[in-house]
Amino acid sequence: MTNMSKSHFSKDFLWGGALSACQAEGAYDVDGKSLTIPEVMKFNEKNDRKVTKQIRVNWEMIEEARNDPNAANYPKRRGIDFYHRFREDIALFAEMGFKVFRYSIAWARVFPGGDDATPNEKALQFYDQVIDECLKYGMEPLITISHFDTPIVLMDKFGGWYNRKLVDLYVKYCEVLFNRYKGKVKYWVTFNEINMSVKASAKTLGIIDYDAPNYEEMLFQGLHHQFVAASRATRLAHEIDPSNKIGSMVAYFTTYPYTCKPEDALQMQQDDQMKNQFYLDVLNKGEYPYYSKTYFKNKGIHLHIEDGDLEGIRSHTADFVGMSYYNSMISSSDTEQLELTAGNVHSVYKNPHLPANEWGWQIDPIGLRYTLNLVYDRYQKPVFILENSSGFYDTLNEDGTVNDPYRIDFLSKHIEQMGLAIADGVEVLGYTMWGPIDMISSGTSEMSKRYGFIYVDQDDYGKGTLKRIRKDSFYWYQNVIRTNGAEL
């Protein structure tokens, strides 16, 4: 355990954890909910862990899933049954001392028909209970409005975010949430990891026209619609409750040049621009940056931008910069000598100076401090670490315990670097580590890839009692929160 001479964290620092509805909730057809993209994705036991391969969701896959009578083939339909066990799980988070709990609301529950005249009251009553349970323990609910779970009905009826109609439907959805939870929810995130849109277009944008000659243009058009929707939602949130804090969010792909060659440094700069900064520039600076315009010109991408779009984006920027941080990558002008390894959503080139987890994701704690300084310097807005962790294989011992020193080691080193970034002068609002309780993997739909402080007795095929078991890391994180980061 690392003992810091003093805590770098403010007394009101928000310690907690984050889950998503589509990985934890289950109850995929309960109380009127309609299908989402994650619920048509099967578990692939032959998954190649050396590289990251995005599953190309297509209409054939969707139709097969709709007609498949065996729901067990689709792990995210069962999740970890958070829908029925949320009180037990939130009580465990409270036992650890959580100050904040990040969770997502499923659009397909609230508006199961996509363009329903009124919201599904049963869905809202469920989220009422989740939010009230958090508040009961003095825990801030942090709500992600859209988290990788595009309702398929929005693809059926409108073709996903390529259709501008989704802007109005999203804002209507937001209005319901902002009014319903006024005075209860202060922190909101408009879109989870919005920069994943060009790598995971099905679950982020609902655009699966892969063979279209203008496919990339379709993605950026859909993304423009999300930028417009985020700006309108931000304006609405502030109008309904001026105390609301609305966050942008990217999965930050921290990048280093492979060598000190100027060509590698230039490639790193260009990668950072279009993988990370572009999205944050629009949402936090309120404008399309010059380099994105050059990218569109070189690619022959022409966006349809309506009157008022850019003014709205400029006038209603995010209140804080949210980001997930899992692994870093390297850039080079000559990649022939480099080796690919798996990473968050897409493969990255392996950094020879870094270790990796069992899935090939490289472990880079210092990169978190580097990234926090980079982001804070660029945007001058508070930063919120909304996801950070690593998947590991855990073993349940015969005595019912789980020893996970590797998780403690990973998180303690990252939290230490976060503290050092705060000491550097970076304003960090809070830290919601990813997956405080084991749940279904977003990318591979497996259960074996575990992130949690709490073990869930369920295997990759849905077998098990679903019993919740505290791991060693549970007590470690409890102490981290109790000492406000002074003991790691």
From TrEMBL:
Entry protein name: Amygdalase
| PANTHER family assigned to the protein according to its UniProt record, in alphabetical order | 6-PHOSPHO-BETA-GLUCOSIDASE ASCB-RELATED, GLYCOSYL HYDROLASE
Entry keywords, A to Z: Glycosidase, Hydrolase
Q: Which GO terms describe its biological process?
A: carbohydrate catabolic process
Q: Which GO terms describe its molecular function?
A: beta-glucosidase activity
Gene Ontology cellular component list: cytosol
Into which family does the record put it?
Answer: Belongs to the glycosyl hydrolase 1 family.
